[in-house]
Protein: histidine kinase
Organism: Arenimonas metalli CF5-1
Amino acid sequence: MTLRAKLLLLSLSVLALPWAGWKFVQQLEFLLRQGQEQALLASAEALARGIAVRPASLPPAGEGWFAHRLAFAPRLDGEAGDWQGAEVDPYAFGAPTPWLRVTLGRSNERLHLLLDVRDASRQRGEAHWPGDLEYDRLRLHLSGPSGELRLRLANSETGALRVAGEDGLPPPIRIEGFWREHAEGYTVELALPQAFAVRTLGLEARDLDAGGQRRLAGTLDADGTLQGRPVHGYVGGLEPTLAALAPPGMRVVLADRAAWVMARAGAVGADTTEDDLLPWRRGLYRALLFRDTLPTASEPADARRVLRAEVADAIAGQPGTAWRRDPSGARLLLSAAVPVRVDGQVRAALLLERSNSEVLLLTDRAFSGLLGVSFVVFLGSFGLLFLFASRLGTRIRRLRDAAEQALDREGRVTRFPVTAARDEVGDLSRSFASLLDQVAGYTDYLRSLSGKLSHELNTPLAIVRTSLDNLDSADLPAEARPYVGRARDGIERMGTLVRTMSEVTRIEHAISAVEPEDFDLRALLADCAEGYRSLLAPREFQVELPAAPLPLRGSPELVVQALDKLVDNARGFCPPEGWVRLSLAAEGEGARIALANAGPRLPEAMQSRLFDSLVSLRAKPQRDEGGTHLGFGLHIAKLITELHRGHADARNLPAGDGVEFTLHLRDIPRSL
């Protein structure tokens, strides 16, 4: 990864700011919801205390019967179809599988009972039969303002209900009812007199099978004694009290310990903040912040029972709250349920519910502010980091480019730019500049070394040569003559070395002081070729020149010197029976001079070093034939080619029968 990409990746750490802000919004939303819950619980507690001061309208603390409010009296026919839904969740008795189900209803202050008995073995009888006979029957234990009453209910077949007292005599009150037999047992539907106000009700079902075994079910204590339970129901008289005590815009429901609704008042009002939020933003907050909210309770507005978790908590003695969405999902509903206590006993549960979209509005304000600040901060941080990365990358690229251009093709050290910046990049550039200054000094010393050595060695060589000449005229023993000859050969080789070094120095000075001119390269090579023909004899010499003139701006003298070095190199490696080929061709904005010759192939490892100084591949016979060769020839050809803005290369011919040296030349600019 580039430095810019790394810094851009690092800039993503700024995203921690909106993340932390989002966590803050979540915590703020939690605190707001907690505050709303506490406020609604306080209202519910105050309302529960107001109801608790009227304990007569509340059900008892123990188990009891709930009589559903019926809009009209059902027909006494043993069918449950006209009980208006009250029979859906009846009281069930019997073990291990309930076989007695009881439903109570009240219409026009008259108590109705619906009893369903599952009895596969029929042992029917009549209510007025003696009590010591065993048969299927029902017993009722009623208590009211006029005292207690025990009744026996039994029919031998479908028809009007037979009712008798415990002694088999007609009862003191008139009870209407119907006994209906069906495949799974029988159903009894009855109605008590309107004037008989039932306070407690006890019920027993006795079933006798064909083998004489008896089973009992109903409100029986541990020893099988029939017990009465208090009867309560919907208290319409509490609705004005609830409506007066309930805060506006809220719905209040009073339920008994079995979650049956005893009274309700009010309605959930419209939230004035609903139109302050766009639908998509409201949906976004619910999806992200209110994921723990529950769907709206499935019971209708006039439900007989409220089976909610918060109501169950209140019945157990602990207040509870819950957040829900209304069916359309457009607003939030908050409900709180608290126990209604009388003398320390839970007698009922109070449910208070309201619309509460203020939390969404406050959350939206906080989130909008956070989003705006985070966007500005992130954009600013991203921009600053991007600018810093761009500037730092640009500085490093400049440093790289300067390092790549510190040495030119001729090995000279160019000026390295130095920055005044006091950071690490500035220190690095100054270190590079200092290092290159030392390299430049050392390079200049090496470049001038050959000239200094050639100048300093001339005098000692002259002295040694003169001394050897004097020794030749002296009377030397015969055995000393070979040593003098070897010394003279060494002096000659050292002289050749000094002259070659002087020539290289002279050519370098000539290159630095050259004055380019326009000339015809084709005519120049044609003239030189005539002189090379006799020099290369008896080798076959081939010349391939273009038909038209080939103009070039440069130094014709230096081009001839470079060509001389190539021809001398070819003469040294080409055998007498071989061939040499000189060719010229236009190439782009310049020209291409190629000199090929028959001979040995170039080693692969040496092809890139042939044009370096002091590099020679000549064997000893080749050196003896052409004199001393120190490897400066091709190096001089390279310097002249680079002066003409080109380069020199060498390659083996594809046929493998020789090599080819090529000079690529271009015009020297006039400003040189």
